[in-house]
Amino acid sequence: MQGTPKPTAPPSGAYAPTDRTVPTRSAKRASYDRELVHAILDEGYVCHLGFVRDGAPVVLPTLYGRVGERLYVHGSTGSRPLRMAGQADPGLPVCVTVTHVDGLVLARSAFHHSINYRSVVVHGTAHQVTDPQEKRAALDALVDHVIPGRSADSRPADAKEFAATAVLRLDLEEVSAKLRTGGVNDEPEDLSLPHWAGVVPVRRQYGTPVAAEDLAPGIALPDYLAAL
Amino acid sequence: MQGTPKPTAPPSGAYAPTDRTVPTRSAKRASYDRELVHAILDEGYVCHLGFVRDGAPVVLPTLYGRVGERLYVHGSTGSRPLRMAGQADPGLPVCVTVTHVDGLVLARSAFHHSINYRSVVVHGTAHQVTDPQEKRAALDALVDHVIPGRSADSRPADAKEFAATAVLRLDLEEVSAKLRTGGVNDEPEDLSLPHWAGVVPVRRQYGTPVAAEDLAPGIALPDYLAAL
């Protein structure tokens, strides 16, 4: 498989549930809808990458990008998971999770407090990307995931930087989304309790961009940043 | 150890680095400072919990709370990691990671793009909490982590709810923080390139609380919500 990009799956339909992607509880919150999964992934840029080291789990935050039915993460060629994935099959078993918090759900009862959220969990085996063209596209996707349009407005990696960066690929095959939306689910007998109940929306907010002190004169804030 | 809360470590000093908590790269971004770790943990409420199932990693988002030198996560007694931890030693090896994104760092070069962030990674073995008093305190901490002061303004779990909820404890022993702060680190020869460079602040924002439609009349928005 190394260095041989295979055709991506069609962007419609749903992922096939597997033993690992069917939750043991709250099954009604699970979804395998491809468009929903893509939307949740595309709204974020920091994932939590899990792998096993010496039999124990390790979870690290890292940037990611999506191209079609593939996720990419990157790092120094010296970093632990990237070294562990190496260039040899069978690759590194990983779990990549992306979570957005949308609201705090305050019920009258402590028990029914909850969070409105959307998450995606991807199980699979990560492989180092060896094809230069795929690697270049993945690096662009990683930058554009954080700031859409930015990869075209920055100096691309030179040969040395390109060689110092390792990229892992994870196919979107064993994938599920999980989400909670809506309001409070209190017990009927709790509705008259003297506690405020409702939802506090939570969102990601961008502040005013702060230009580098040594920014060359005459460079205006680009439109793609003003639009954030 | 089960059911016998041990004294918590003093809140000063630093965690002892271990093989797992010393990063293979960017070591200057790592910290073992106890106050810093506590501050990062206390600012959040969603962690990413990693464990190993059938030899493969699983990473799930879940709520957490901190009491002294212990983290707590909770869930249905039927949920997978909580069943796996069970009530028997040696418990469940886990990795709990909490990440805050503080800014997008836009360099002139794609290579030097980065994220300002603060994260904490905790390695250890999770055990089910069996002591009722500790479990009750943990459930309060879980609610108060999301909304400080809320546990005192809600109906506590009744016996049935209490029994249906499992709580896992993870001691803060093998812990590290990692953070990036500051501005852009471009190569000197890139400073005159015609690309905007700087930092876009990112923060968590709370919207206006939306009261439940069936909220009993006369219940005002509590101060702890107005202060969010």
Can you characterise this structure?
2 copies of one chain form a homodimer. With 228 residues, the first copy, chain A, is α+β, with helices and mostly antiparallel strands. Chain A has a single domain, classed as Electron Transport, Fmn-binding Protein, Chain A (Pnp Oxidase, Chain A, Roll). Chain A is 18% helix and 37% strand. In chain A, a hairpin with a 2-residue loop joins strand 3 and strand 4 (70-76). Mean pLDDT of chain A is 91; it is low at 1-7.
Low-confidence stretches of chain A: 1-7
The greatest interface between two protein chains, and residues involved on each side, is: A-B, 96 and 96 residues
Largest sheet of chain A: 6 strands, antiparallel, barrel
What is the H/E string of chain A? Answer: EHEEEHEEHHEEEEH
